[in-house]
Amino acid sequence: MTGDEILRAQSATRRFGDFTAVDAVTMAVRPGEVVGLLGANGAGKTTLIRLLLGLLAPTEGAVELLGGPPDRAHRARMGYVPQNLGLYRDLTVAENLSFSAGAYDTAVPEIPVTLHDFRDTLVGDLALGAQRQAAFVVALAHEPEVLVLDEPTSGVDALSRAELWDTIRGQADRGVGVLVTTHYMEEAQQCDRLLLMAGGRLVASGSENDIIGDTRAVAVHTADWAHTFAVLNAADIPVILDGTAIRVPDTEPATITSALSDAGVDAEITPVAATIEERMLVLARSR
Ligand SMILES: Nc1ncnc2c1ncn2[C@@H]1O[C@H](COP(=O)(O)OP(=O)(O)OP(=O)(O)O)[C@@H](O)[C@H]1O
Protein backbone atom coordinates (compact mmCIF):
# COMPACT_ATOMS: atom_id res chain seq x y z
CA MET A 1 0.00 0.00 0.00
CA THR A 2 1.29 3.49 -0.80
CA GLY A 3 0.93 6.46 1.54
CA ASP A 4 -1.48 8.55 -0.52
CA GLU A 5 -4.58 6.44 -0.04
CA ILE A 6 -7.52 8.40 1.27
CA LEU A 7 -9.83 5.42 1.73
CA ARG A 8 -8.45 2.03 2.57
CA ALA A 9 -9.79 -1.32 3.68
CA GLN A 10 -7.40 -4.10 4.69
CA SER A 11 -9.07 -7.53 4.92
CA ALA A 12 -12.14 -5.74 6.24
CA THR A 13 -14.92 -8.09 7.31
CA ARG A 14 -18.33 -7.25 8.73
CA ARG A 15 -20.67 -9.88 10.07
CA PHE A 16 -24.25 -9.45 11.25
CA GLY A 17 -24.83 -12.49 13.46
CA ASP A 18 -23.92 -15.52 11.32
CA PHE A 19 -24.18 -13.54 8.09
CA THR A 20 -21.05 -12.08 6.51
CA ALA A 21 -22.02 -8.92 4.61
CA VAL A 22 -18.41 -7.86 3.81
CA ASP A 23 -15.83 -10.62 3.58
CA ALA A 24 -12.10 -9.82 3.82
CA VAL A 25 -12.16 -6.88 1.40
CA THR A 26 -8.89 -5.09 0.62
CA MET A 27 -9.20 -1.95 -1.51
CA ALA A 28 -8.12 1.68 -1.69
CA VAL A 29 -9.00 5.01 -3.28
CA ARG A 30 -6.40 7.66 -4.10
CA PRO A 31 -6.74 11.43 -4.64
CA GLY A 32 -8.08 12.48 -8.03
CA GLU A 33 -9.53 9.14 -9.07
CA VAL A 34 -13.13 8.04 -9.51
CA VAL A 35 -13.51 4.46 -8.34
CA GLY A 36 -16.74 2.67 -9.21
CA LEU A 37 -18.08 0.09 -6.76
CA LEU A 38 -20.30 -2.40 -8.56
CA GLY A 39 -22.29 -5.44 -7.49
CA ALA A 40 -25.80 -6.85 -7.45
CA ASN A 41 -28.29 -5.86 -4.74
CA GLY A 42 -27.05 -7.16 -1.41
CA ALA A 43 -23.44 -7.64 -2.61
CA GLY A 44 -22.16 -5.60 0.36
CA LYS A 45 -21.41 -2.21 -1.24
CA THR A 46 -23.24 -0.03 1.29
CA THR A 47 -21.88 -2.03 4.21
CA LEU A 48 -18.32 -1.55 2.89
CA ILE A 49 -18.96 2.19 2.57
CA ARG A 50 -20.30 2.33 6.12
CA LEU A 51 -17.14 0.60 7.34
CA LEU A 52 -14.89 3.01 5.42
CA LEU A 53 -16.71 5.99 6.90
CA GLY A 54 -16.64 4.67 10.45
CA LEU A 55 -20.44 4.37 10.61
CA LEU A 56 -20.01 0.64 11.34
CA ALA A 57 -17.04 -1.09 12.97
CA PRO A 58 -15.34 -3.96 11.13
CA THR A 59 -15.68 -7.36 12.81
CA GLU A 60 -12.16 -8.12 11.54
CA GLY A 61 -9.56 -6.24 9.53
CA ALA A 62 -8.97 -2.51 9.37
CA VAL A 63 -10.16 0.60 7.57
CA GLU A 64 -8.64 4.05 7.18
CA LEU A 65 -10.11 7.37 6.12
CA LEU A 66 -7.56 10.02 5.09
CA GLY A 67 -4.73 8.06 6.65
CA GLY A 68 -6.31 7.70 10.08
CA PRO A 69 -9.22 6.14 11.88
CA PRO A 70 -12.60 7.01 10.36
CA ASP A 71 -13.52 9.17 13.35
CA ARG A 72 -15.43 12.43 13.55
CA ALA A 73 -12.38 14.60 12.76
CA HIS A 74 -11.54 12.64 9.61
CA ARG A 75 -15.21 12.44 8.60
CA ALA A 76 -15.34 16.26 8.65
CA ARG A 77 -12.98 16.17 5.64
CA MET A 78 -15.18 13.95 3.51
CA GLY A 79 -18.49 14.37 1.71
CA TYR A 80 -21.05 11.58 1.73
CA VAL A 81 -24.26 11.24 -0.22
CA PRO A 82 -26.03 8.16 1.15
CA GLN A 83 -28.75 6.31 -0.76
CA ASN A 84 -31.44 8.12 1.23
CA LEU A 85 -29.56 11.44 0.58
CA GLY A 86 -29.21 12.43 4.25
CA LEU A 87 -31.23 15.65 3.85
CA TYR A 88 -33.92 16.88 6.22
CA ARG A 89 -37.09 16.43 4.22
CA ASP A 90 -39.09 18.79 6.41
CA LEU A 91 -36.61 21.64 5.94
CA THR A 92 -36.34 23.77 2.81
CA VAL A 93 -33.33 23.57 0.47
CA ALA A 94 -31.95 26.83 1.93
CA GLU A 95 -32.49 25.58 5.49
CA ASN A 96 -30.70 22.30 4.74
CA LEU A 97 -27.70 24.19 3.36
CA SER A 98 -27.59 26.53 6.39
CA PHE A 99 -27.92 23.64 8.81
CA SER A 100 -25.09 21.71 7.18
CA ALA A 101 -22.86 24.82 7.01
CA GLY A 102 -23.47 25.32 10.74
CA ALA A 103 -22.54 21.70 11.49
CA TYR A 104 -19.27 21.99 9.52
CA ASP A 105 -18.65 25.59 10.56
CA THR A 106 -18.29 26.71 6.93
CA ALA A 107 -19.92 29.46 4.85
CA VAL A 108 -23.41 28.69 3.55
CA PRO A 109 -22.87 27.51 -0.06
CA GLU A 110 -24.46 29.25 -3.01
CA ILE A 111 -27.58 27.63 -4.34
CA PRO A 112 -26.96 26.52 -7.94
CA VAL A 113 -29.04 28.29 -10.61
CA THR A 114 -31.02 25.13 -11.31
CA LEU A 115 -32.21 25.07 -7.68
CA HIS A 116 -32.92 28.82 -7.33
CA ASP A 117 -36.65 28.41 -7.81
CA PHE A 118 -36.73 25.78 -5.08
CA ARG A 119 -34.70 27.49 -2.36
CA ASP A 120 -37.78 27.80 -0.13
CA THR A 121 -39.32 24.44 -1.08
CA LEU A 122 -39.33 21.64 1.47
CA VAL A 123 -36.85 18.98 0.32
CA GLY A 124 -39.57 16.34 0.75
CA ASP A 125 -41.65 18.16 -1.91
CA LEU A 126 -38.86 18.25 -4.53
CA ALA A 127 -38.51 15.87 -7.49
CA LEU A 128 -35.84 13.25 -6.87
CA GLY A 129 -33.39 14.84 -9.35
CA ALA A 130 -33.52 18.16 -7.47
CA GLN A 131 -33.19 16.38 -4.12
CA ARG A 132 -30.06 14.62 -5.35
CA GLN A 133 -28.65 17.90 -6.62
CA ALA A 134 -29.27 19.51 -3.22
CA ALA A 135 -27.58 16.54 -1.50
CA PHE A 136 -24.51 17.10 -3.72
CA VAL A 137 -24.40 20.80 -2.81
CA VAL A 138 -24.52 19.89 0.89
CA ALA A 139 -21.86 17.18 0.52
CA LEU A 140 -19.48 19.49 -1.37
CA ALA A 141 -20.01 22.69 0.63
CA HIS A 142 -17.06 22.13 2.99
CA GLU A 143 -14.69 21.24 0.10
CA PRO A 144 -14.12 17.61 1.10
CA GLU A 145 -11.00 15.66 0.13
CA VAL A 146 -12.98 12.43 -0.29
CA LEU A 147 -16.40 12.03 -1.82
CA VAL A 148 -18.44 8.88 -1.22
CA LEU A 149 -21.60 8.52 -3.26
CA ASP A 150 -24.02 5.61 -2.82
CA GLU A 151 -26.09 5.29 -6.01
CA PRO A 152 -26.03 9.08 -6.51
CA THR A 153 -28.06 9.09 -9.71
CA SER A 154 -30.61 6.38 -8.96
CA GLY A 155 -34.05 7.38 -10.23
CA VAL A 156 -33.04 10.64 -11.93
CA ASP A 157 -33.45 11.49 -15.61
CA ALA A 158 -30.63 11.28 -18.15
CA LEU A 159 -29.94 15.05 -18.17
CA SER A 160 -29.67 15.28 -14.36
CA ARG A 161 -27.49 12.18 -14.42
CA ALA A 162 -25.11 13.77 -16.89
CA GLU A 163 -24.97 16.94 -14.76
CA LEU A 164 -24.23 15.00 -11.58
CA TRP A 165 -21.45 13.12 -13.40
CA ASP A 166 -20.00 16.44 -14.58
CA THR A 167 -19.85 17.45 -10.94
CA ILE A 168 -18.18 14.15 -9.95
CA ARG A 169 -15.52 14.49 -12.66
CA GLY A 170 -14.96 18.16 -11.74
CA GLN A 171 -14.30 17.14 -8.14
CA ALA A 172 -11.82 14.44 -9.19
CA ASP A 173 -10.06 16.97 -11.43
CA ARG A 174 -9.44 19.14 -8.37
CA GLY A 175 -7.87 16.16 -6.58
CA VAL A 176 -10.82 14.76 -4.68
CA GLY A 177 -10.88 10.95 -4.47
CA VAL A 178 -14.33 9.59 -5.30
CA LEU A 179 -15.90 6.23 -4.45
CA VAL A 180 -19.24 5.79 -6.20
CA THR A 181 -21.67 2.88 -6.34
CA THR A 182 -23.87 2.50 -9.37
CA HIS A 183 -26.13 0.03 -11.12
CA TYR A 184 -25.80 1.90 -14.44
CA MET A 185 -23.16 0.39 -16.67
CA GLU A 186 -22.73 3.58 -18.72
CA GLU A 187 -21.73 5.25 -15.43
CA ALA A 188 -19.30 2.46 -14.60
CA GLN A 189 -17.61 3.30 -17.90
CA GLN A 190 -17.01 6.86 -16.68
CA CYS A 191 -15.00 5.64 -13.68
CA ASP A 192 -11.19 5.47 -13.73
CA ARG A 193 -11.21 2.10 -12.05
CA LEU A 194 -13.83 -0.45 -10.98
CA LEU A 195 -14.27 -2.75 -8.01
CA LEU A 196 -16.78 -5.57 -8.30
CA MET A 197 -18.35 -7.18 -5.22
CA ALA A 198 -20.39 -10.38 -5.05
CA GLY A 199 -21.56 -12.09 -1.87
CA GLY A 200 -19.56 -9.69 0.30
CA ARG A 201 -16.26 -10.38 -1.45
CA LEU A 202 -14.25 -8.26 -3.84
CA VAL A 203 -14.28 -10.57 -6.86
CA ALA A 204 -12.72 -8.43 -9.59
CA SER A 205 -11.07 -5.03 -10.03
CA GLY A 206 -9.47 -2.86 -12.68
CA SER A 207 -10.73 -1.59 -16.01
CA GLU A 208 -13.94 -2.71 -17.69
CA ASN A 209 -11.88 -5.21 -19.70
CA ASP A 210 -10.15 -6.50 -16.56
CA ILE A 211 -13.55 -7.12 -14.98
CA ILE A 212 -14.99 -8.88 -18.00
CA GLY A 213 -11.85 -11.01 -18.36
CA ASP A 214 -12.37 -13.85 -20.83
CA THR A 215 -16.11 -14.14 -20.24
CA ARG A 216 -17.90 -14.56 -23.55
CA ALA A 217 -21.57 -14.26 -24.44
CA VAL A 218 -23.90 -15.31 -27.21
CA ALA A 219 -26.46 -13.09 -28.91
CA VAL A 220 -29.62 -15.00 -29.83
CA HIS A 221 -31.50 -13.55 -32.82
CA THR A 222 -35.12 -14.63 -33.13
CA ALA A 223 -38.50 -13.12 -33.92
CA ASP A 224 -40.09 -15.07 -31.09
CA TRP A 225 -38.06 -13.46 -28.31
CA ALA A 226 -40.56 -13.95 -25.48
CA HIS A 227 -40.88 -17.71 -26.05
CA THR A 228 -37.10 -18.05 -26.58
CA PHE A 229 -36.42 -16.24 -23.31
CA ALA A 230 -38.85 -18.54 -21.47
CA VAL A 231 -37.26 -21.67 -23.00
CA LEU A 232 -33.71 -20.65 -22.03
CA ASN A 233 -34.82 -19.60 -18.56
CA ALA A 234 -36.59 -22.92 -18.01
CA ALA A 235 -33.39 -24.71 -19.07
CA ASP A 236 -31.53 -22.83 -16.29
CA ILE A 237 -29.39 -21.02 -18.84
CA PRO A 238 -28.28 -17.50 -17.68
CA VAL A 239 -30.35 -15.47 -20.14
CA ILE A 240 -30.59 -11.66 -20.25
CA LEU A 241 -33.32 -9.75 -22.05
CA ASP A 242 -32.30 -6.25 -23.14
CA GLY A 243 -35.37 -4.78 -24.84
CA THR A 244 -36.19 -7.62 -27.22
CA ALA A 245 -32.53 -8.63 -27.67
CA ILE A 246 -31.55 -11.89 -25.99
CA ARG A 247 -28.05 -12.53 -24.67
CA VAL A 248 -26.59 -15.52 -22.88
CA PRO A 249 -23.25 -15.14 -21.05
CA ASP A 250 -20.77 -17.86 -20.17
CA THR A 251 -22.54 -20.72 -21.96
CA GLU A 252 -21.33 -22.93 -24.80
CA PRO A 253 -23.18 -22.09 -28.05
CA ALA A 254 -23.92 -25.84 -28.47
CA THR A 255 -25.81 -25.89 -25.13
CA ILE A 256 -27.99 -23.00 -26.30
CA THR A 257 -28.59 -24.49 -29.75
CA SER A 258 -29.58 -27.80 -28.22
CA ALA A 259 -32.04 -26.24 -25.72
CA LEU A 260 -33.62 -24.19 -28.49
CA SER A 261 -33.90 -26.99 -31.03
CA ASP A 262 -35.43 -29.32 -28.38
CA ALA A 263 -38.14 -26.68 -27.91
CA GLY A 264 -38.58 -26.18 -31.67
CA VAL A 265 -37.33 -22.56 -31.57
CA ASP A 266 -35.89 -21.14 -34.78
CA ALA A 267 -33.00 -18.82 -33.85
CA GLU A 268 -29.61 -17.70 -35.05
CA ILE A 269 -26.81 -17.38 -32.52
CA THR A 270 -23.66 -15.26 -32.65
CA PRO A 271 -20.75 -15.38 -30.15
CA VAL A 272 -19.94 -11.87 -28.84
CA ALA A 273 -17.82 -10.23 -26.14
CA ALA A 274 -19.57 -10.15 -22.74
CA THR A 275 -20.53 -6.91 -20.96
CA ILE A 276 -19.86 -6.02 -17.33
CA GLU A 277 -23.50 -6.73 -16.48
CA GLU A 278 -23.18 -10.18 -17.96
CA ARG A 279 -19.99 -10.81 -16.01
CA MET A 280 -21.84 -9.72 -12.85
CA LEU A 281 -24.65 -12.17 -13.58
CA VAL A 282 -22.14 -14.98 -14.06
CA LEU A 283 -20.41 -14.16 -10.78
CA ALA A 284 -23.68 -13.86 -8.87
CA ARG A 285 -24.85 -17.27 -10.21
CA SER A 286 -21.57 -18.93 -9.30
CA ARG A 287 -21.94 -18.05 -5.62
N1 LIG B 1 -27.65 -3.97 9.88
C1 LIG B 1 -27.76 -5.12 9.21
N2 LIG B 1 -28.18 -6.24 9.81
C2 LIG B 1 -28.29 -7.41 9.14
N3 LIG B 1 -28.00 -7.56 7.83
C3 LIG B 1 -27.59 -6.46 7.16
C4 LIG B 1 -27.44 -5.20 7.81
N4 LIG B 1 -27.00 -4.30 6.89
C5 LIG B 1 -26.88 -4.97 5.73
N5 LIG B 1 -27.22 -6.27 5.89
C6 LIG B 1 -27.22 -7.31 4.87
O1 LIG B 1 -25.95 -7.31 4.27
C7 LIG B 1 -26.06 -7.59 2.87
C8 LIG B 1 -25.36 -6.52 2.10
O2 LIG B 1 -26.14 -5.34 2.17
P1 LIG B 1 -25.66 -3.99 1.49
O3 LIG B 1 -26.70 -2.96 1.78
O4 LIG B 1 -24.27 -3.71 1.93
O5 LIG B 1 -25.68 -4.41 -0.03
P2 LIG B 1 -25.54 -3.47 -1.32
O6 LIG B 1 -24.53 -4.12 -2.20
O7 LIG B 1 -25.28 -2.07 -0.89
O8 LIG B 1 -26.97 -3.61 -1.97
P3 LIG B 1 -27.87 -2.49 -2.77
O9 LIG B 1 -27.27 -2.40 -4.14
O10 LIG B 1 -29.23 -3.12 -2.75
O11 LIG B 1 -27.77 -1.22 -1.99
C9 LIG B 1 -27.55 -7.71 2.57
O12 LIG B 1 -27.91 -9.08 2.55
C10 LIG B 1 -28.19 -6.99 3.74
O13 LIG B 1 -29.47 -7.54 4.02
Automatic annotation (TrEMBL):
One of its GO terms (molecular function) is ATP binding. SUPFAM superfamilies: P-loop containing nucleoside triphosphate hydrolases (SSF52540). PROSITE patterns: ABC_TRANSPORTER_2. It comes from the Bacteria. Coiled coil: none annotated. Keywords: ATP-binding, Nucleotide-binding. It holds the Pfam family ABC_tran. Residues 7-224 form the ABC transporter domain. PANTHER family: ABC TRANSPORTER G FAMILY MEMBER 20 ISOFORM X1, ATP-BINDING CASSETTE, SUB-FAMILY H, MEMBER 1. This is ABC transporter ATP-binding protein. It comes from Gordonia aquimaris.
